[in-house]
Write a sequence for this structure.
């Protein structure tokens, strides 16, 4: 596919909507009100059933990415320009519900930071965080899928 989807995602807790990303569908998602008070198994079940793969947390001193049942790894920014992503499917296993949450603490810029990913549903591709604003509590993400 290799066309680029650009999304602006709201930080967790900063806005009631557009606070997650479905990497398979390359679209924004909204968590239900009160989900953080749900028991963990119910919360994880909802996130996985609804394709919620990634969120951004900009409330702490450094930004964090939260991945749900998605395997991801930082890759050199140069990989963004490659047309063939077949290496991703070979390098990353699909995400697994047995290890449902992955947290990545992001360092201060320079940006972008590029990640290869493979979701629980088997979609693979790359995304990059191109900007974030602690003041606005938003992050800019670009996605390409294989």
């Amino acid at each position: 596919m290799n066309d680029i989807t650009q999304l602006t995602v709201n930080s967790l807790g900063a806005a009631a909507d557009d606070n997650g990303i479905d990497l398979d569908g390359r679209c924004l998602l909204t968590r239900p009100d009160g989900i953080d008070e749900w028991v963990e198994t119910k919360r994880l079940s909802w996130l996985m059933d609804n394709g919620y793969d990634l969120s951004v947390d900009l409330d702490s001193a450094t930004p964090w990415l939260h991945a749900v049942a998605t395997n991801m790894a930082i890759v050199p920014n140069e990989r963004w320009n490659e047309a063939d992503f077949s290496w991703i499917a070979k390098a990353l296993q699909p995400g697994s519900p047995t290890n449902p949450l992955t947290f990545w603490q992001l360092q201060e810029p320079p940006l972008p930071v590029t990640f290869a990913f493979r979701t629980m549903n088997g979609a693979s591709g790359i995304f990059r965080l191109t900007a974030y604003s602690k003041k606005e509590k938003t992050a800019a993400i670009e996605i390409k899928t294989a």
Summary: The first helix runs from residue 40 to 49. The chain has a mean pLDDT of 88. The two ends are 6 Å apart (CA to CA). The beta strands are 5-10, 20-22, 27-29, 54-57, 64-68, 70-75, 101-105, 113-119, 124-133, 138-145.
